Structure formats: structure tokens, C-alpha cells
């Protein structure tokens, strides 16, 4: 039997024609663009992400999983929130982070089940070359029967060709859905290779989610991710290396930034105001999102501060969900070429108004290969799907 998540079809091979609870929850993700927030941000996040195609990832705050579980229960039972919700224990982050060999907390797993949520493992950090840690997370997650294995990983797992090959092989052999969080690449890790590795993982025969991401989440969704999460604030739009200095606190990132659609990037309110004054006829200040309703972004940035944060967040989520709709067509190749073109346009638009370049845009352009005549004419070979619980059978992927 087969089952479909958005435009991507998987085959369930180990059941008699019925979806298991875990598979049903994966199907319900339906290539959602999730908003990742902390426990204390759930109210504001749920208000704006309560629409089809959206959902939440709630990240444990200050090492308090109970608080996160209690807020999730309230969200579901009192607020009657109906979009997909995932809970992130965040044990992979901070000075006391756990390693990949740490066992899962049975209570954390059990409470997610009680709430009827997809079960996301509370994995520790997957260091470079920690093969035993990687297999340990996957095998323990598979034994749970209904879990998504969280793999919060050093970027070399994707960038290094050998590590990448092992990762993809382990994931396919164990056959458990995975949610990855990728630590920011620093020298000597090549960030273009990280994107290439991500694309290869997304081509593999099991459902893959990308969490704690920036706008790269859209590229991942277009490339076949069953869901991807963009952080509500910059601290949740990536994972900083532990030795990258003191972690940014959520309050440091509290000033709202505005998502500029054509630049595929967030800009500070002051930066947007200044650029609008300097380049009034630039053509990218008009916003057709439901919140702005065709107005110039001036209306948004000139709101009184008390009203502004909520409206800015609503505008950002409107734009993200609109881009998500455009990026999740049935053809992964077309989605990827469209994403590549958007990244190129965004780079030039950033340059036009003198804003800082966004390396992510260049990395995706380099990682996505454009069609050649032979690639267009010769059908891509299909990967063997035997021996796995989840098999992706369509559509054909770019670069194969
Ligand atoms: Zn808008």
C-alpha cells in the first residue's frame, strides 16, 4: 500500500494495508511549514500559525520539559489548536547538552503519545564521526514503533561525502522517519556541501523533516521534506556551534524583524524604514499578504510599538505560508529550480538596497543543479526500495 504526503508518495511495507498511528501523524504533516517557538511564545505563535499548511514546533525552554508538555496540553485541550504540533526537548543544545548516546526519557515519549502528537525523540547532539551515536538514536527510535528520530547534527554529517553516505544508508536501512537539526557550518565545513547533503538525505526512502531552520526550510519543503520549521526568532533559526560564544538569549532577539518577500530575508524595522526612505520606488515594499492587504510596508513599520510586534509576526507568517504554497508543487525538480531562481533574485534585491548579503542564498544556488539536455531526456533510475519501512516512490528527483 502507498500513502502520500503532499506530492510525495511513500510505501508502507510492514503493515496489512492500514496506516499505523505514527504513519497517520506523518501524513497529517502534509508538507507543513511549521513555526518553531519556545514554551513562552506559544500563545503568539499559535495565533498566527492556526491555518492549513502551518503548525508549531514547541521547544523546551530553560530545561523545563514539564512546562512545555503542560503548555502543549493547554494548547490542544483548551485552545483547541488543530494544526500539527511537535515538541522539541532541546537536549542537544547549550553548555550541558547531551550526546547522541544518551537514552530517551520514557516520560517525554509517553506524554507525547498521551497528547496524540507525533512522537519526537529527545535526542542528544550528534557529533562528527559518532557512528554509534547515530545508529543508537535511529535504532532506539525504531524500537518505539511510532517515533520520529530527532538527529541534531554537526554539519559534517551532511557535508562530508563519506559521512553523508553512511547517514543516508543508516536512515534507509533502519527505516524510521527522521527530523534533522543542522548546526551552523563553520570552517572547514563547506556550507554548499551541507546543502548538497541535505538534498541527498531528502531524496532518501524515508520521511525527513528539517527543524530549527531559517528560510532554507522552504528549499527543503520544495525538495521533498514532509515538514520544515522556521524559527519565530533568530535563536530558533539555526543551531550555533557550542564554542561560538555565549548563546543569544531570546530577549536579545525580541525586537521584531520583518520578512521581505523578494529578499527572502528578515530585516530590522529600522533597516526597512531607512531603505524605504532611500529607495522609495524600488518596487518591493508593496505587500499583498492578507495582513498588509496590498499596502506599502510603511503602514506596518509605522504602527505604535505595542501593536506592531503581533502584526509584523502575522505578516511574516502570511508571507511564509504563501511561499510554502508556491514551493510545494508536485515536481521536486521544478520546485528546486524555482527556489534557485528565487534565491538569485533575492541576492540581487539585497544588493540593490545595500543590505548585507545572505550566504544561504548563494549556497542553495550552487547546490541545485540546473537541467542539462541529457538529464531532461533520460528518466532517472529508481532506487531499490526493498527492506525499508518507508519507501519514497515518486516523484523523480533532481540530480539523479
Ligand atoms: Zn504583508
Q: Describe it for me?
A:
With 400 residues, the protein is of the alpha/beta class. The protein has two domains: 2-250, TIM Barrel (Alpha-Beta Barrel); 256-367, no CATH class. It contains 15 helices and 13 strands. It has helices spanning 21-29, 42-48, 65-77, 106-114, 131-144, 156-159, 161-174, 191-202, 216-222, 269-278, 298-301, 305-327, 332-352, 359-367, 373-377; strands spanning 2-5, 8-12, 32-38, 56-59, 85-88, 119-120, 147-153, 178-182, 208-213, 227-231, 257-260, 265-268, 390-394. The strands form three sheets. It has an eight-stranded parallel sheet with strand order 5-4-3-10-9-8-7-6. A three-stranded antiparallel sheet has the order 1-2-13, covered by helices on one side. It has a two-stranded antiparallel sheet with strand order 11-12. Strand 6, helix 5 and strand 7 (147-153) form a beta-alpha-beta unit. Helix 7 (161-174) runs parallel beside helix 8 (191-202), helix 8 crosses helix 14 and helix 9 packs parallel to helix 12. It is globular. It starts with a strand and ends in a 6-residue tail after the last strand. The protein binds zinc ion. Residues 287, 289, 291-292, 315, 318 line the site of zinc ion. The site of zinc ion has 6 residues, from helix 12. Residues 380-400 are annotated as: Disordered.
- Please give the radius of gyration in angstroms: 20 Å
What small ligands are held by the chains? zinc ion
Q: What would CATH call the architecture of the largest domain? A: Alpha-Beta Barrel
Describe the global form.
globular
* Euclidean distance between termini CA atoms: 25 Å
SSE string: EEHEHEHEHEHEHHEHEHEEEHHHHHHE
